[in-house]
Write a structure and sequence with these properties.
713 residues; 62% helix; 25 helices; 4-stranded mixed beta sheet; alpha/beta; 4-stranded antiparallel beta sheet; 9% strand
Length: 713
């Protein structure tokens, strides 16, 4: 048994749970078993030291949550102190001695007068019971009530920020955990302060018992004279009460310090927080110094004392001024460091910047080393980016431009988010014709057709550039080719450039013009859903240059339609004039092929609901038939301006469009709700899943849906 006990004691310092268990066991033992005087002195010293430690910790915590174990500590320390009081009371009544610490405290406080000792003890007890313990209890009670009342609102605020994309799941989980800790802390503190209040009351009862019982034991059992017994037991009783009440007072101050902390954005320890706020305005310190100096001039007041205090306050104002000047200089230096060029920045700042890895541009163009002679590449990339941004109505990120020998000779590569998406060869010594080849023959300029695609690309030696300019023949040099390719890549990946941050910035810019509309959209539609709608629109080349129509559609349908895909369809319907204008020719005519109703029914029945949303699952035979008919339409298209669109119902439009894109067919697909009344729809045929599709002539009477008639808005 002794070996096990010895092993437990040896392991205790490295195991906090064992330490707590030993303290509880020792607490119970003190209530029951008599303790030697040396051990009692040790326990009293530990009690005092632990109270001082708690008080110091409370001064340096930045938030009450950092000291969330305080309620449990209050419980353990209060029980330990009461057990220690029981032990010292037993020693006072049995041995008329409770150790050196108790006697020293009693002699120091009594100072030869029992009455003085009683008055001092009563004052300490009243201060702790009525002022500190009662005040801390009230603060903890009100804090717990407010925290619990505000808990649902704070949780809803966290959920709203999560839906709006302001925070992620990790931050939301952290904030919810913090709210739970705060509610538990203040609730536990409200109950723990009852222990402190009860401890103060118990101190008054114990001192009365010790005085009456001690005098009775001294006179009746020990045969001491009444005055001697009163002096001896009063000394021990007051000493015992003080070594109990002083740690209790420190514990009350600790609890009051923690529950009264008000934490803001700058979480500082209590000393720095108080000093910073008291010296925040130098005028307050100066006025206080003037008032103190004036008070020193009052007859009868100690002038020297007030002069010294006034000088101290004046010196504090000067220190505060110097500190604020240093802070301002530090802020100015930081701003200058951020704005300085790399060549003139301080060495240390430059080293820090070099140590931070560079962020990968969203879009970057990498050129081979032999393309260094490409002129105005940056200007042409910016022009291409600006034209695309104007066409789509969104912000296109800057295109990074760099030279990389790993690309190859006379080659370039375009990367999106660090992933290569386009790579090709370009000869800086040749020009690409973008005009009628007949003009070359008339001008007598030799040309060379592309061996891979002779009907599409015709190359001209760069030596004939002046002749081309003189003849007015259009051509593209290497920079034009790369810029055009970059523009196509940007257009294909435009949806990647719209995220939560970009959407929030867009709404902030629009708030000055459409304040009420933006507020209504924010009320009905989370930011991430707005971003998703914009991505889907831009992904199909729909311009959002008219944000008012987009916002009105979102405000109207955002609350009614939770499905972001269907919500996008309603927004497309609001942009029908812009969509029709994009695909109409110079005569405001939109050529269109219609999907037959029977084909629509087959497509509609092939939609399957999956865990990631609805998905089109066509049979192989039906799929091949649809692709064959659409490919024949694509082959008959002469130019992009005369390219016909495909018309279908709103509920299947997105499935048809997705099916065609996945199979490499970039043909616009519109719904009947996207047809504007001020544009003429010219049916050029129908698309079915059985038999052949219609010819370029108009379909049979009655086969064109009534909703396509231009008179419909």
């Amino acid at each position: 048994m002794m070996e096990r006990l010895k092993s437990l004691v040896v392991r205790a310092p490295g195991s906090p749970d064992l330490m707590i268990a030993l303290v509880l066991v020792l607490t119970i033992a003190m209530m029951i078993l008599p303790m030697p005087l040396l051990l009692v002195d040790l326990l009293i010293g530990f009690n005092l030291g632990f109270a001082v430690l708690l008080l110091m910790v409370s001064l340096y915590v930045r938030s009450p949550i950092e000291f969330s174990t305080l309620p449990g500590i209050i419980l353990l320390s209060t029980v330990f102190r009461l057990a220690l009081t029981i032990t010292t009371t037993r020693l006072i009544l049995v041995q008329a001695d409770a150790g050196d610490i108790v006697r020293t405290f009693g002699e120091f406080v009594i100072a030869g007068s029992v009455l003085v000792g009683l008055v001092v003890f009563l004052i300490i007890t009243v201060v702790q019971f009525i002022v500190i313990a009662k005040g801390a209890e009230r603060v903890a009670e009100v804090g717990a009530r407010f925290i619990l009342d505000a808990l649902p609102g704070k949780q809803m605020a966290i959920d709203a920020e999560l839906r709006n994309g302001d925070i992620d799941q990790v931050e939301a989980r952290r904030r919810r955990g913090r709210l739970e800790q705060e509610s538990q802390l203040y609730g536990a503190m409200d109950g723990a302060m009852k222990f402190v209040k009860g401890d103060a009351i118990a101190g008054l009862v114990v001192i009365a018992v010790n005085l009456i019982g001690g005098i009775a034991v001294g006179t009746l059992s020990r045969g001491m004279p009444l005055l001697q017994a009163a002096h001896e037991y009063t000394l021990l009783t007051i000493g015992d009460a003080l070594i109990s009440q002083i740690p209790a007072l420190m514990l009350s101050i600790t609890a009051a310090t923690v529950v009264t902390r008000v934490t803001g954005d700058r979480q500082l320890d209590l000393g720095r927080d108080i000093a910073g706020q008291l010296s925040a305005d130098r005028r307050a310190l100066r006025l206080a110094a003037i008032v103190l100096l004036a008070m020193g001039l009052i007859p009868g007041f100690p002038t020297a004392v007030f002069v010294v205090l006034a000088l101290a306050f004046a010196a504090a104002s000067l220190v505060a001024r110097a500190r604020s000047d240093e802070d301002g200089a530090a802020v100015g230096n930081d701003n200058r460091d951020e704005q300085a060029e790399a060549g003139v920045a301080p060495t240390r700042a430059r080293d820090v910047r070099q140590a931070v890895p560079a962020e990968v541009p969203l879009v970057s163009v990498l050129l081979s080393d032999d393309l260094h002679s490409v002129e105005q590449m940056r200007v042409k990339l910016d022009e291409a980016r600006a034209k695309l941004a104007d066409a789509l109505g969104i912000l296109i990120p800057d295109v990074g431009l760099a030279f990389d020998s790993a690309v190859g000779v006379s080659r370039f590569r375009i990367e999106v988010e660090g992933v290569p998406v386009e790579e090709d060869h370009v000869d800086p010594q040749r020009l690409l014709l973008c005009d009628d080849p007949v003009n070359l023959e008339l001008a007598g300029i030799p040309a060379q057709a592309d061996a891979a695609k002779p009907s599409e690309k015709i190359w001209i030696d760069a030596a004939h550039e002046k002749a081309l300019l003189a003849a007015g023949i259009g051509y593209h040099d290497s920079a034009d080719i790369i810029a055009t390719c970059a523009r196509d890549v940007l257009a294909r990946n435009a949806a990647r450039f719209i995220g939560i941050q970009e959407t929030r910035a867009l709404l902030s810019r629009l708030e000055s013009r459409y304040g009420d509309l933006v507020k209504e959209v924010a009320r009905t539609t989370p930011v991430q859903k707005v971003a998703d709608v914009l991505r889907r629109l831009v992904d199909e080349g729909v311009s959002v240059r008219n944000p008012r129509l987009v916002l009105e559609a979102l405000a109207e349908w955002g609350e009614k339609e939770p499905n972001v895909v269907l919500l996008t369809e309603y927004v497309r319907a609001a942009l029908k004039r812009q969509i029709c204008h994009k695909y109409a020719n110079a005569h405001r005519i939109v050529p269109a092929y219609m999907i037959e109703r029977a084909a629509e029914d087959i497509i509609r029945s092939a939609v399957r609901d999956t865990a990631v949303g609805p998905y089109l699952v066509l049979e192989d035979k039906v799929s091949e038939g649809l692709l064959e008919r659409v490919r024949r339409i694509d082959k008959t298209t002469v130019s992009d301006r005369d390219r016909p669109v495909i018309l279908t119902s709103m509920d299947v439009r997105r499935f048809v469009r997705g099916f065609l894109v996945r199979n490499g067919l970039d043909i616009p697909v519109l719904s009947y709700q996207e047809l504007a009344s001020d544009f003429t729809i010219q049916p050029v045929g129908t698309i079915g899943l059985a038999g052949s599709f219609g010819s370029d002539s108009a379909p049979r009477t009655g086969s064109f849906p009534q909703s396509v008639v231009p008179a419909v808005g």
